[in-house]
Write a structure and sequence with these properties.
UbiD C-terminal domain-like; 7-stranded antiparallel sheet
Length: 480
């Protein structure tokens, strides 16, 4: 059953003892970050701050900061369930015969119900007030940050040519009570839509920012969706129920009706301003640069809303788990384009785009190179600075075994591939912004047909009968 709103999910966390409430006054300037970082590093609970200095609203953070809470938020026992669900819908073999088509009707009916449902009134508009960001408990995350940041915003825009809405998550530096930065960097959909408005000669671009929704909507805003799919449609698929939306007061954008807060306004297409620095998910400060400015005209909210936020920095943190959700949920789509892929792992330390480990069913010489280049050609996979390829019998989530294979299986001249290409805007290691060099590591067993003429040794493994014998007698040995 889909969560009605963020409040309902927080109530569930409270009932399951997965939420710690703090009633004493806490400062949003760095103190909340330090508390949350300590809890996050110990894989601790979600945190609800009921008394944030300078604000009437409570603040919730780290709600999805463990695998348990992420699964709970997306209403699954395991993230692979969502991947399997997507694969079921995409298996065209199930729709071939008339009988198959009839059997598929219930599933297709469900698919028809994922589209947002427009309603006339929404709880997010219970209170309508003039813009005043000083009322919100916006945090300053790290000492060298350029200011306070709204860190969990769902930024909704509308394509001026197609009318399709887009929802993304872009940090927003608070400049004053009515303006923020809008961190639309080069490769983001929000930036593309912004450029369309400019090309058409518009002076203003309508934007609405949603703060606080049920977990499926929050996750959908971070998901690397194809441009033709509205993130609110994907959220409806995840929650198995349409997202109810309501029209904003000052523009034609539809926002989730049960959101906690909505900031309505516009981006002035002739205005840019210095944004940053910001302590980012890479664990380093991203540099200051020029970005568009968001002007807030109205702020609406529920009668008793909760302000949601998150922090990013050295992993593990809450954003790492959202990244893991993407890894599992989108694996089937990657497999469609590269069916030789068995599994993949984006280690938390790689902060989403710096490293991926891929196991493949190798079937021809230099197969690993084909997979590397294919992945670098897939959407946001182009940012991946290191791709490690291992054989299908290697679990990519077993980092010790992967390291053993890499350290022992590669010949540097033969198995290291340097590729020039685009990099994430937050990458600081390259000499140039937005592009640089990526490395592919082929740690698979080498074949004679790949030029390796010497015998390749087998892994040391015990015989199955001895393993079974020791399993049966283990208690007899008296070993704890």
């Amino acid at each position: 059953m889909a969560y009605k709103d963020l409040n309902e999910f927080v109530d569930l966390l409270r009932k399951k003892d997965l939420l710690h409430e703090i009633d004493i006054e806490v400062d949003p300037n760095l103190e909340i970050t330090e508390i949350t970082d300590r809890v996050s590093k110990k894989y601790g609970k979600a945190l609800l701050f009921n008394n944030v200095k300078g604000s009437e609203f409570p603040l919730v953070i780290n709600t999805l900061g463990t695998y348990e809470r992420l699964n709970l938020g997306l209403e699954v026992d395991d993230l692979d369930e969502i991947a399997d669900d997507i694969l079921e819908f995409m298996d065209m073999g199930k729709y071939v015969t008339l009988t198959d088509k009839v059997k598929s009707i219930p599933k297709l009916t469900r698919l028809a119900r994922v589209f947002p449902k427009k309603v006339k009134n929404g709880a997010c508009q219970d209170v309508v007030r003039d813009a005043d960001l000083s009322k919100l408990p916006v945090i300053k995350c790290w000492p060298q940050d350029g200011g306070k940041y709204i860190t969990l915003p769902l930024v909704i825009t509308k394509d001026p040519e197609t009318g399709q809405q887009n929802m993304g998550m872009y940090r927003m530096q608070v400049y004053d009570n009515k303006t923020t930065g809008m961190h639309w960097h080069l490769h983001k959909d929000g930036r593309e839509i912004y450029n369309k408005y400019k090309a058409l000669g518009h002076k203003k671009m309508p934007v609405s920012v949603v703060l606080g929704c049920d977990p499926s909507i929050i996750y959908a805003a971070t998901a690397p969706m194809p441009k033709m799919i509205d993130e609110l449609v994907f959220a409806g698929f995840l929650r198995k129920k349409p997202v109810e939306t309501v029209k904003c007061i000052t523009n034609d954008i539809q926002v989730p009706a049960n959101a906690e807060f909505v900031l309505e306004g516009y981006v002035d297409l002739d205005e840019i301003r210095i944004e940053g620095p910001f302590g980012d998910h890479t664990g380093y400060y991203s540099l200051s640069d020029e970005y568009p400015v968001f002007h807030i005209e109205k702020m609406t909210h529920k009668k008793s809303p909760i302000y949601p936020t998150t922090i990013v920095g050295k992993p593990p943190m809450e954003d790492c788990y959202l990244g893991k959700a993407t890894e599992r949920i989108f694996l089937p789509l990657i497999k469609i384009q590269s069916p030789e892929i068995v599994d993949m792992n984006f280690p938390l330390e790689g902060v989403f785009h710096n490293c991926v480990i891929v196991s493949i069913k190798k079937s021809f010489p230099k197969h690993a190179l084909k997979v590397m280049n294919g992945l670098w050609g897939m959407g946001q996979m182009m940012y991946t600075k290191m791709i490690i390829i291992v054989d299908e019998n290697v679990n990519p989530h077993d980092l010790s075994t992967v390291a053993w294979k890499v350290f022992n299986n590669i010949d540097a001249k033969r198995d290291l591939i340097i590729s020039a290409g685009p990099l994430d805007a937050l990458d600081h290691a390259s000499d140039t912004a937005f592009y640089g060099h990526r490395v592919g590591i082929d740690a698979t067993k080498k074949w004679p047909s790949e030029g390796h003429k010497r015998p390749w040794p087998d892994d040391i493994e015990m015989s199955d009968d001895i393993v079974s014998k020791v399993d049966k007698r283990w208690k007899e040995y008296g070993i704890d």
